[in-house]
Amino acid sequence: MNLSFYGATGEVTGSCFLIEVGDKRLLVECGLIQGSSEHERHNQDPFPFDPARIDAVVLTHAHLDHSGRLPLLVKQGYQGPIYTHAATVDLCRIMLEDAAYLNEKEAHWENRKRERRDQELLEPLYTRADARLTDELFVPLEYHQRTEILPGVMLTLHDAGHILGSAIAELELSEDDQMRRLVFSGDLGHRGEPILRDPDCLHQADLLIMESTYGDRQHRDWNATWSEMGEVFRKAREDQGNILIPSFAVGRTQMLLHSFRRHFDDWGLGNWHIFLDSPMAIKATEVYAHHMSVYNARAREVIGENSVPFQLPNLHMTRDSEESMALNRIRSGAIIIAGSGMCTGGRIKHHLKHNIWRRQAHVMMVGFQARGTLGRALVDGASEIRLWGEQVNVHAEIHTIGGLSAHADQQGLLGWYGHFDSSPPVALVHGETEAMQALAEALRTRYHCEVSLPKFRQTLNLLEL
User: Fold this and answer.
1) How far, CA to CA in Å, does 97 sit from each of 10, 92, 231?
2) Distance CA 315, CA 337 (A)
3) Do both 51 and 63 map to the same domain?
4) Which residues, 6+ apart, have CB-to-CB distance to 136 below 8 Å?
5) DSSP secondary structure letter of residue 454
6) What are phi and psi of 37, to 5 degrees?
7) What's the domain count of the chain?
8) Which domain holds residue 368?
9) Model's pTM, two decimal places?
10) How far is Cα 342 from Cα 213, in angstroms, rounded to an integer?
11) In CA terms, which of 85, 218, 241, 397 is 20 to 30 Å from 165?
12) Tens of pLDDT along 224-275?
């Protein structure tokens, strides 16, 4: 009975873990490696296992750093079930199709250059056909539904409160009369999140595989965050510029729209035109609207019984590229929410090109920015950035709104761990080294527990726990 770590070791993205129980092999997560182009090239590396020999997959949530290589797994021979929450199934259908389209587009443009140089052509990492084959393998589950997914393997999903459908995966593994209970935290949500419930608290585990994204910091108080955002809107209105918000299509965008609705009058949002400039975010928002049963009570109260979630009187959905390009002619009074959340691609880069050099403009960074990304450069105070080979000066005011994170902070992670009986051992993943080390020290100090920081390809014998 073994657990091998094949991703998110010493970094935030690329989650992937292999469990071997008897003659069965179970994969938990199969995420994309994201960040700089150098990091992302590793998505082309061969899997450290044979995809055709995997018997089942468990997915905690739809974000691509957890789900984004599933079509590649299928392309290379996987044909088994993918167990996840029903809302995650709906989101993955959107996100994996979009990721596949971008793969095809990137390969097309690269191959046009290669043809002119008489070089060997590339194939996409995976295609939309691969994504559609992946869709057929999903098996939707609900929270707290204990299910035998393989002989000797029971799965229960618990609410992680991170994005719609996000789950903590509790696995009960049996082999030769030995039983081990593993708990994969997935990405744990930020308590008090505006739409979703707080993460479920569990009590039993022989080993926790726990995220550590913000293991070295504390988030701002929610009320302080709302005040900070209101001040950005006030200042931007005085400056008579636009506000650009690079936002993740799933989770962060819906949190923003819901918060705009709650604070519409407080923040003077009636004075703006608000544009959701992301086809994928628009589709994801529609999925969110169909799964209100997982919302917290406060969110359902704000929305009301007969109302439509995320509805604003001045919200414009810009689905096609012509509508998006037209936004670049607006010099004042526009709030533009666009992807990608780390400014690595998508429509936000075009809006940056037309606004970032303008002193009246404001950029509101509302999500995690991985090292090596354009978003991280802006957060770190870059005075100029490079867009399509052109150097562009940064004169817009950059605002980092840290309190909006959908991840638990250090105190949230420590508090969640504290509900477990007998201080079980912890393997920290999904965090940069500094965050992991800080959380490891805090866990050891407060709970006197055993904490490890697994290395890539490291294998643990679970029967030795």
Assistant:
1) 28, 8, 38
2) 11
3) yes
4) none
5) P
6) -60, -30
7) 2
8) 223-404
9) 0.92
10) 15
11) 218
12) 999 999 999 999 999 999 999 999 999 999 999 999 999 999 999 999 999 9
